Amino acid sequence: MREITYRQALNEALAEELERDPNVFLMGEEVAEYNGAYKVSQGLLDRFGSKRIIDTPISENGFAGMGVGAAMVGLRPIIEFMTFSFSLVAFDQVVNNAPNMLTMSGGQFNIPITFRGPNGPAHQLGATHSHATECLYANVPGLKICTPATPRDAKGLLKTAVRDNNPVLVLESELLYSSKGLVEPLDYELLIPLGEAELKREGTDVSIICYAQTVPLALATAETLQNEEEINAEVLDLRSIKPLDLTAILTSVSKTHRVVIVEQDRPFCGVGAEVCYRIQKEIFDELDAPIMRVSQEDVPMPYNERLEKAVLPSAEKLIAAVKKVCYA
Amino acid sequence: MPGPEQCDEVEMLSLMLLIRRFEERASQQYQAQKIGGFCHLYIGQEAVVVGAVAATRHDDYIITAYRDHAHALARGTTADACMAELFGKATGCSRGLGGSMHFFDRENHMYGGHAIVGAHVPLAAGMAFAAKYRSEDRVTLCFFGDGAINQGGFHEALNLAGLLKLPIVFICENNLFAMGTSVERSTSLKQIVDRAEGYDMPGEIVDGMNFREVRDKLAEVVTSIRKNPHPAFIEIRTYRYRGHSMSDPASYRTKEELEKFRLDDPITRLRAQLTREGKLTNEEFDEMDKRAKEMALASVKFAEKSPEPPLEKLYDYTYANGASA
User: Fold this and answer.
1) Of A79, B113, B120, B164, which has the fewest Cβ atoms less than 10 A away?
2) Domain containing B10: what range?
3) Which residue out of B127, B164, B308 would a mutagenesis test of the A interface target, given it has the greatest number of A Cβ atoms within 10 Å?
């Protein structure tokens, strides 16, 4: 194992898949000559050339749609959104074209496409650039969605996404690009299945269910809870929103009997709402307390730093929720 | 595949007749409530897609909007599979899951059937991109109506196609109305073809009621694209005799206007040309028309007796299995 950044892990995944399959290409704004707005595609133009690493104008609807069309005739596009907040300009292509094609054509046209880029609030980007889009896209049948939180997951999930025969959204996190973690050596073929959660910390008293940016938050908070409250929290990273690893969720909850879901999206129809529903439907009797959710506040993201912090999930909010379900 | 000069015009006329008789049957079956949803008929525009098909190869990509029955038929999808799709049957060209607006036929390189106006134009650019990426000489024919040319996706796709020099023909089937809104009421340009200039691609206006003009112009453009990939734009002026959809009485236009176009009917016109040149007798035409009517009627019978898509397969088409090796 080596320690590399989340950004480097994604870069390796892209390079390996481009190397492996000539039908794979990367297209998006500033992916080639600029080496990526967040440098995820650093060096790829030099290595693979302008035929396969393609800069586009600011034209999300156009190039997302081009990706879908290219996928219809057998290519495997990787479409980078500079942020998933901009994917909203291409919403029709991501929601109406990519995932509907297989059904509409009676099974004739699957769309093997990867849409990737940073998703969720970063830091003081204001309302238009801070969207956590997972709950919007999770509502759409035909899409798969993963949310890597570590370099290892980033590499393994992105590689799997590119090989999947369906449209897959790889929702990265701007705040995690420079974070480091252990990843297998370069010659190791790292593939992490979509729809498989990972227990990031074992515990006995409460299950903290998290994904993406809330994973490091949950892990840090679990240590605080252990040290200051003597609460031993289990941290389950969903890794994929769709398909959802219900088995892992139910296994953890059946062990701890208490649940807090900490999510980076908004409360109304958020990912946690669905997880919550599934838990109570399947194992109501296992629960020793009502399920709590910690999410964003239900407001457009304010620019002001103090207010932004108040909108986001935080250690304080998470600790309060955990103590509530533990009646501590 | 035959080039345009060798294409059998009598056969192409027969295809236009099949499209018309099929659409008339579809209209009747819609009124009999055998067909659900929306249904947009192509009657009057037959020379456009048949002319285009006559000018291209079978492996060239075709993609269009929701007025799509004719594009499938012209490409070789059977009348049976088309009518069964309208009936929502498992034997339909999209297994009954697409409906009138979503005809697909992979074998015949017909890539839909797209019902969000303008949304398929970027897809077409992507298909052309793939052809160029693989160094193939096939051309993408992207059909759309005059209503699509004010959508953002249309403009983005034309810009990208121009920028990347994609092998694609943007074919605007200008039938003068986007639903009930005339081109004058929707578009700031005097003529639609001028959109091409904004994206630095050649543009032409073609009389869509004249099969030969459509075929010859398309053949010229496609030949040029095959030699050296580039996008082109063709505004084909045509007319739909029926309303926008089955529920539209088309009260926004005059009887005189409709009559004017009907007098210039593309089927009558090609028939007259062929008859005058001694290539078609009245008896042969009548025989062809009879055959078209029989095929359309037979397609209704086929659709009627076809099975529904099985309920237990409801979830089978949401995700594709497997992954690339």
Assistant:
1) B164
2) 4-304
3) B127
- Give the CA distances from residue A104 to residues A94, A107, A231, B103, B174, in Å, rounded to whole numbers and listed in that order: 15, 8, 51, 8, 26
- Chain A positions in Cβ-Cβ contact with residue B324 (cut-off 8 Å): 21, 23, 76, 112, 163, 165
Domain A2-183 has CATH 3.40.50.970: yes
- Positive or negative torsion for Cα A262, A267, A270, A274: positive
Predicted TM-score (pTM) of the model is 0.96
**Domain extents for chain A?**
2-183, 198-325
Chain B residues whose CB is inside 8 A of the A93 CB are: 119, 122, 153
Q: Does domain A198-325 have CATH number 3.40.1190.20?
A: no
Nearest one of B143, B148, B115 to B127, comparing CA atoms = B143
The pLDDT tens digits for A172-191 are 999 999 999 999 999 999 99
Q: Which of B97, B130, B316 sits opposite A75 (nearest CB)?
A: B130
Q: Which residues have a Cβ under 8 Å from the Cβ of B256 and sit 6 or more positions away?
A: none
Contact (CB<8Å) B113/A72: no
Contact B145, B67 (CB under 8 A): yes
B113, B120, B130: residue with CB nearest A70: B130
From the list B104, B121, B133, the residue facing A105 with the nearest CB is B104
Pairing of strands A259-262, B110-113: unpaired
Is the pLDDT reported for residue A49 higher than 60?
yes
pLDDT at position B2, please? 45
Q: Which residues of A are catalytic?
A: 60, 129
Q: Report CB contact under 8 Å: A76, B324.
A: yes
Query: From the CA of A249, how many Å to the nearest CA of chain B?
Result: 23
Residues lower than pLDDT 70 in chain B:
1-7, 325
What's the structural domain count of chain B? 1
Task: Give the pLDDT score at B1.
Answer: 42
Per-residue pLDDT of A291-301, as tens digits, reads: 999 999 999 99
